[in-house]
UniProtKB/TrEMBL annotation:
Alphabetized InterPro entries for the sequence: Metallo-B-lactamas (IPR001279), RibonucZ/Hydroxyglut_hydro (IPR036866), Sec-metab_biosynth-thioest (IPR050662), WH-like_DNA-bd_sf (IPR036388)
Keywords, in A-Z order: Hydrolase
Domain Metallo-beta-lactamase: 25-251
Any GO molecular function: hydrolase activity
Gene3D superfamilies noted in UniProt: Ribonuclease Z/Hydroxyacylglutathione hydrolase-like, Winged helix-like DNA-binding domain superfamily/Winged helix DNA-binding domain
Listed SMART domains: Lactamase_B
Keyword Cell wall biogenesis/degradation (UniProt): no
Protein name: Hydrolase
Organism: Streptomyces graminofaciens
Amino acid sequence: MAQARDHGGGVRSIEVPIPDNPLGHTLVYVVDTDRGPVLIDTGWDDPRSWTTLTDGLTACGTSVSEIHGIVITHHHPDHHGLSGAVREASGAWIAMHAADISVVRRTRSTRPETWLGYMAAKLTAAGAPEEHVAPLRTSGPRRLPGFSPALPDREIVPGELLDLPGRRLRAIWTPGHTPGHVCLHLEEAHPSQLPGHGRLFSGDHLLPEISPHIGLYEDPDDVTTADPLGDFLDSLERVARLGPAEVLPAHQYAFTDAPSRVRELLDHHEHRLTGLQSLLTTPLTPWQLAERMEWNRPWPDIPYSSRNIAVAEAEAHLRRLVKEGRAESVPGSDPVTYVAV
Ligand SMILES: [Zn+2]
Ligand SMILES: [Zn+2]
């Protein structure tokens, strides 16, 4: 049963399901413009998700063929998955930040075997045991999700208004969760006159109850320079300064008081960094640090793919500690270990 929720002022949302995922759904926003509806994100590429999206558009009094444009917060398949299908059905343009377009381009040109080899090398360098890495080298061809994402037609330029006739929607670059993540600030007054400055489509950057995954930017050309957690913390402060009256996130539900949610997340990460620094009294590899970090369940119970995500998160925190001068790598260690300063 398709549902569309009316947020007022020509903005509605559709809960597009993400199959077999605890997140449950992506909130796809439908923004009316003088040239027809524009979507913010599109949802996971799955037949049931597609049906929900198209039925939802019907419930909004429009149809997928009427879509004028697609604005993507970031390249992840629960946001960008259905973009190609919507473009095919409507002729809509697709817009994305250049840094995430690069990821899309790389994903499209990389064969899954090459990608698995890159993952294997990275996990080995992070200190993963051979029994964890071996399956990546030996398993045959398989279908990886999101391996041929749609190539966007337009770049989202940070700080600029998007070309949405009759609306004021400004791109706010919020790297961290991905290198090209953007939030979209609808600068018009809140339809119910809530205090604050307009409304913010926050993608995965700012969610009411979840702290988004901050790992590494999956870029084979990036050695150790990127600091995604540092980027994320800066991006949080950027959206707090906007002071939106309401936040319209891509998962869960709409909420108010962005600055206090930002404060919670900043405190959470500072608490985590301090805890990790205290674990580094003896030198640890990123893998060993991940084993000792607190997760939502004991390490032995964490499934294979989630361990890869966990070790990337451990590495992102290590890079931040190094940048802040609170930890350093041990010269000559292989795989590299880190110790508190
Ligand atoms: Zn995401
Ligand atoms: Zn997401």
